TrEMBL record:
It comes from the Bacteria. This is Uncharacterized protein.
Length: 83
């Protein structure tokens, strides 16, 4: 396998681990991180809610998730779950 394939496999394993962790527990809202938000947003993307996600990010002054301020993580996480 090429290095690219190995890197992709590793990233997919990390993503899967995140999904498993969320499935097994309720997320503690005090410890929300960007990965928790990313998982929820990816679920919504897979359901075709792209415009809703873009509007949510824009509400928090961001074009992409990496631009969301840490202090907004809890609020955006809660709103993303409700989409």
């Amino acid at each position: 396998m090429s290095e690219l394939h190995l890197a992709l496999a590793e990233e997919l394993e990390k993503l899967a681990a995140g999904y498993r962790a969320i499935a097994k527990r309720k997320t503690n809202l005090e410890n929300i991180n960007i990965q928790d938000i990313s998982i929820i947003l990816n679920e919504k993307i897979n359901k075709g809610q792209i415009s809703e996600i873009k509007a949510l990010l824009k509400k928090y002054g961001a074009e992409k998730l990496a631009e969301v301020q840490i202090e907004d993580y809890e609020a955006i996480f809660k709103e993303a779950k409700k989409l």
